[in-house]
Design goal:
The complex is a heterodimer of chains A (about 270) and B (about 375). With about 270 residues, chain A is α/β, with parallel strands linked by helices. Chain A is built from 10 helices and 10 strands. In chain A, the strands form 2 sheets. Chain A has a 6-stranded mixed sheet, sandwiched between helices. In chain A, strands 2-1-4-5 form a 4-stranded antiparallel sheet, with helices on one face. Chain B is an alpha/beta fold and about 375 residues long. Chain B has 2 domains: about 90 residues, STAS domain (Transcription Regulator spoIIAA, 2-Layer Sandwich); about 240 residues, no CATH class. Chain B starts with a strand and ends with a helix. The chains are: A alpha/beta (about 270), B alpha/beta (about 375). At the A-B interface, helix 4 and helix 6 of A face helix 1, helix 2, helix 3 and helix 13 of B.
């Protein structure tokens, strides 16, 4: 198992995502200006920031759900603004997105949710399709009878897992997570953190994770990007702890942040 | 990169399977076919050599593991070897999570006769359930209404006026246009037939009676059912999906009082007014056609109308409007509250609301016709 992301065998010199001078806009209001950010292959980048700082909007801008106000977005070395329709579709099969509340299709069962991208993109024989769906559900730790249930019948944690299974359906090398642990109890949230870490190590995923959960950041993220005062600061958790910015101090050196960091130190010992 | 391949050969008493290339989801279908064509002579031991594999994802890993399991199930001792170190964790992960055979989709054996009988039974039960549901909901609303009347302070005036504006005022353009056109069409068809008896003047009676007694109120009710009945279901249904109804209940607020009553009362108050407007526009359409085609000036049209109609002709139409309104509002709101937490459910119940309320409008209209005939008015 690779000890650290920098020595991960999949890492290449080319970053998976590169943002240059990006400005995001929501409803006419500019949320961030001049964001420069690189996501390296095989790493988990945690994106933190105050509520309303535009964390989710940044994610939506990168995956093309929201047009950037300025700047360029490169994913897998391609400028997303310059892609043709076919390249754009191809790009869509190379990333998976986990939405905040799962965004499972409510009229389809969990198994059908996972099968949908597979069916639409690939001509798989039915037996293999069922097997791959069952595999994805098993990978995210869902029992196989969950596949027959509808999203409305699932608990919050199970919905997140099912949505993660759908995001992983096409085995994308890049995964976007929007608040993966929001609304979950600490045990389930911890399990989900562990799952993301596990899948990242074994499947060699590159992960862009938006979260407000300090525990998640400490447990999962290799590097942290903090959106503060309309721009972004990037570093490891230790660098964040020593950052003079008052918001970052309040965030990481507040009681919850300190508890999370202490916990990690305890684990390491 | 090379596309995925696999080949088998015997090596003494052992079977050697060599796999290489790209074992990813994009090639999974082709690999599945290649694996199916592979001839695997029975042997005691087998090795799966993955040295040449260049890329692997979970789908590819599953195909390897599935092959291993298929061989193991025949009593062959299988080893997987030579997988490159960086792909090892992936295979382990897929193996650890273990893939159970997917449960076969639940499909009981089918027979045409049993299915037919079964579906008749299911439909009957559903129909009875719907009827019981409507009656129960009607009772609940009546009780709530009675309680509100005792405490008039709880009538939500703002909400009521807002609903009246939405279901009534906003519907006027479309109701007016359609009534005018139907008035024109009716007068045109009537004049064409009546001319053969030199009784063109009776076109006025036809349009007047037809509109005031039946068409005006029916047109208004059907348009409002399509416009507002569906809106009631969709609004309330979306609130159910979003758990807003539960939120109301936990705040000790009665969704019937807060959501259903304003809509019901608004519709009961506005549909007669909309009907009146539809009548006026229909008669106007008839008058315009009579003037243009039959050369009947407006004063004569009005005089003939005056002779043909009594005040009762007007009231017999208007009197039906509150009943239609009650049916439309109750069905719309009840279907909205019956929505389950899915987008599809909102659509299904909205469709049902419109179909059922138009059906009920026609049934109630027929009942009134029988009643009026019995009363000889």
């Amino acid at each position: 198992m690779p000890p650290s992301p920098s020595s991960s065998p999949r890492s290449k010199s080319e970053p998976v995502i590169r943002l240059r001078g990006l400005a995001t806009r929501a409803g006419g209001r500019v949320l961030q200006r001049n964001i420069d950010l690189e996501l390296r292959a095989g790493e988990v980048l945690g994106v933190a920031g105050a509520s309303g700082a535009g964390k989710s909007m940044l994610l939506k801008t990168i995956v093309g759900l929201n047009a950037p106000a300025a700047g360029t977005i490169e994913v897998f070395g391609q400028d997303t603004a310059k892609l043709g329709a076919a390249e754009r579709t191809l790009l869509g099969t190379r990333w998976g997105v986990l939405f905040q509340d799962g965004a499972l299709f409510s009229s389809l069962t969990v198994a059908e949710n996972v099968a949908l991208p597979l069916k639409e993109r690939l001509a798989l024989p039915t037996a293999l399709l069922h097997e791959i769906c069952a595999l994805k559900l098993a990978l995210v730790g869902l029992a196989d009878d969950v596949g027959h249930k509808y999203p409305g019948q699932l608990s919050g944690g199970m919905r997140k897992r099912a949505a993660l299974a759908r995001a992983l359906a096409l085995d994308p090398p890049l995964l976007f997570l929007d608040e993966p642990t929001a609304g979950l109890d600490p045990i389930v949230a911890g399990e989900l953190d562990q799952l993301v870490r596990d899948l990242k190590e074994s499947l060699g995923l590159t992960v862009f994770m938006v979260t407000h959960d300090v525990d998640s950041l400490v447990a999962v993220a290799d590097r942290i990007a903090v959106l503060v005062d309309n721009h972004v600061r990037i570093g490891t958790i230790d660098e964040m702890l020593n950052d003079p910015n008052p918001w970052i101090q309040a965030y990481f050196n507040g009681p919850r942040g300190r508890a999370a960091v202490r916990h990690r130190a305890g684990d390491g010992a | 990169m090379q596309e995925g391949w696999i080949e088998a050969e015997g090596e003494g008493d052992a079977l050697v399977l060599r796999a290489g290339g790209q074992w990813c989801i994009a090639d999974a279908a082709a690999l599945d076919r290649k694996l199916g064509r592979l001839s695997l002579p029975p042997s005691r031991r087998a090795r799966i050599d993955l040295a040449a594999i260049e890329a692997l994802d979970t789908a590819g890993a599953w195909l390897v593991l599935r092959l291993q399991r298929a061989l193991a199930a025949r009593g062959t001792e299988v080893r997987i070897e030579n997988l490159s170190r960086d792909l090892e964790p992936l295979l382990r992960q897929v193996e650890k999570r273990g893939v159970p055979a997917p449960p076969p989709p639940l499909q009981p054996p089918r027979s045409l006769v049993a299915d037919g009988v079964g579906s008749i039974g299911a439909t009957t039960l559903e129909l009875l359930g719907t009827t019981a549901g409507h009656l129960g909901f009607f009772g609940l609303v009546v009780v709530t209404l009675a309680r509100t009347l005792v405490q008039p302070g709880r009538v939500r005036i703002v909400s009521l006026v807002a609903q009246m504006s939405r279901v009534g005022v906003a519907a006027l353009p479309i109701v007016g246009l359609l009534s005018f056109l139907v008035g024109v069409v009716m007068a045109y068809q009537g004049a064409d037939q009546l001319r053969r008896f030199s009784a063109e003047i009776l076109t006025v009676n036809l349009v007047g009676l037809g509109f005031l007694r039946e068409l005006g109120v029916l047109l208004a009710a059907v348009i409002i059912a399509g416009r507002s009945g569906s809106a009631f279901t969709a609004e309330i249904g979306a609130m159910v999906v979003n758990e807003e109804i539960d939120a109301l209940r936990t705040l000790a607020l009665d969704p019937i009082e807060l959501l259903v009553l304003p809509r019901l009362v608004a519709l009961v108050l506005t549909l007669p007014l909309v009907t009146f407007y539809a009548n006026v526009m229909g008669l106007f359409g008839g008058a315009v056609l009579c003037w243009l085609v039959l050369g009947l000036p407006l004063p004569i049209f009005v005089q003939q109308l005056h002779d043909a109609l009594t005040m009762w002709s007007f009231w017999l139409g208007i009197i039906k409007a509150p009943f239609f309104a009650t049916a439309i509002a109750l069905v719309g709101c009840q279907e909205g509250l019956s929505v389950h937490r899915s987008a599809e459910s909102v659509g299904r119940h909205t469709t049902r609301a419109v179909v059922q309320s138009i059906f009920l409008v026609i049934v109630i209209d027929a009942a009134f016709s029988i009643l009026f005939a019995a009363l000889q008015i």
